[in-house]
Specification:
Structural class of chain A: mainly alpha
Largest sheet of chain B: 5 strands, mixed
Shape of chain B: globular
Largest interface: A-B, 25 and 27 residues
Oligomer: heterodimer
Helix content of chain B: 40-55%
Strand content of chain A: under 5%
Distance between the termini of chain B: 36 Å
Number of domains of chain A: 1
Radius of gyration of chain A: 14 Å
Shape of chain A: globular
Number of domains of chain B: 1
Number of strands of chain A: 0
Helix content of chain A: 55-70%
Radius of gyration of chain B: 14 Å
Chain lengths: 112, 150
C-alpha cells in the first residue's frame, strides 16, 4: 500500500469533498486497464446497450481510456489534464459504473 | 435497491475464508466499515447481529487478484443475489479519514493466501461518527454493548 505522504499528496487533486466512489473507479479502473481480460470485461459492461451511460462513455471514450491507460502519478496526471481544460476529478467522474448484473467473464463485447 | 442482509459476524468470516481459498497468489486487504466491526465481533466469539444491517463490506487492496475477486461481487452481481450483500471496493485514499497511526492498533489475520488487516474498532468508528447518521450511532451503540470498544 502507498504511504500516508503519497496519499496526502493526492488530496489536493481530489479536493476536500472527495467522492471515494469516483476515486475507486479511477484507481481500480487504472489497475484493471493493464489486465487484458479485465479491460475487455469493463468495456463490454460500459458498451452494453443496457448501460445508461453508454452513449456518454462513447462520446468521451478516448479521454477516459487515455486516463485509464496512464501510469503517471496522480498529481502529474491532473496537471496534464488541466493543461487540456479538464481535471482528474472531472474525468474520474466520467468513468462509468460497472453493473454487476452483466460483469461476468462471459460478457460479450459490442464495440463501436 | 441493494440488498441489506449483512448482520451476523459469521458472514464476514465465512466470506474471508472462501475468498482466501480462491486466491492463487499472496494478496493483501484492509477491511473497514461495518464489515470490519463484524469481523472484530466474530474474532471475540460474539454472535449479536448488527443493528440495521449493512449492504456491503468495504475492502481496500493493492493486489490485482484481490481486486478482481472483489469486482466479481459488486452490487447487482450473482454474489449479491446469493449472499444478500455486496463488496464495495474502496480506494486507499479513504484511509486519510482515519488517524495517522491507525495501523499501530490494527489486527491482522491470514486466510490462505489472503492477509487481512483490520483497524481497531475505535479507529473504524471515527469516520462513521463524523458522518453521524442514525445507522452510524446505532453501530457505535452496538459496538459498545458488545464491548468492542476499550
Amino acid at each position: 500500500m502507498r504511504d500516508a505522504a503519497a496519499i496526502a499528496a493526492e488530496s489536493t487533486v481530489w479536493g476536500p469533498y472527495a467522492s471515494y466512489d469516483d476515486v475507486a473507479r479511477f484507481e481500480y479502473g487504472r489497475r484493471f486497464w493493464h489486465l487484458p481480460e479485465m479491460r475487455r470485461r469493463l468495456l463490454a459492461n460500459w458498451l452494453d446497450d443496457r448501460h445508461p451511460h453508454r452513449d456518454r462513455f462513447i462520446e468521451q471514450r478516448a479521454l477516459i481510456e487515455g486516463v485509464l491507460a496512464s501510469n503517471e502519478a496522480v498529481p502529474a496526471l491532473d496537471e496534464r489534464l488541466r493543461g487540456c481544460g479538464s481535471s482528474l476529478r472531472c474525468v474520474a467522474r466520467e468513468i462509468p459504473v460497472v453493473f454487476g448484473q452483466w460483469f461476468g467473464p462471459a460478457g460479450s463485447l459490442t464495440d463501436d | 435497491m441493494p440488498r441489506r442482509e449483512l448482520k451476523h459476524p459469521r458472514q464476514v468470516e465465512d466470506w474471508l475464508i472462501e475468498f482466501g481459498g480462491k486466491l492463487m497468489q499472496p494478496g493483501r486487504m484492509i477491511l473497514i466499515g461495518s464489515g470490519a466491526l463484524l469481523w472484530h465481533a466474530f474474532q471475540r466469539g460474539i454472535t449479536e447481529p448488527l443493528p440495521e444491517s449493512s449492504m456491503d463490506v468495504d475492502p481496500i487492496t493493492d493486489s490485482d487478484e484481490v481486486a478482481q475477486l472483489c469486482y466479481d461481487a459488486l452490487i447487482g452481481s450473482d454474489f449479491e443475489v446469493a449472499h444478500g450483500w455486496h463488496v464495495n471496493l474502496m480506494p486507499e485514499s479513504v484511509l486519510r479519514e482515519f488517524s495517522a497511526d491507525w495501523s499501530a492498533r490494527a489486527a491482522t489475520k491470514t486466510y490462505g493466501c489472503l492477509e487481512v488487516t483490520v483497524p481497531s474498532p475505535s479507529d473504524l468508528l471515527l469516520p462513521k461518527l463524523r458522518r453521524n447518521e442514525p445507522r452510524d450511532r446505532a453501530h457505535e451503540a452496538w459496538a459498545k454493548s458488545i464491548k468492542l470498544l476499550t
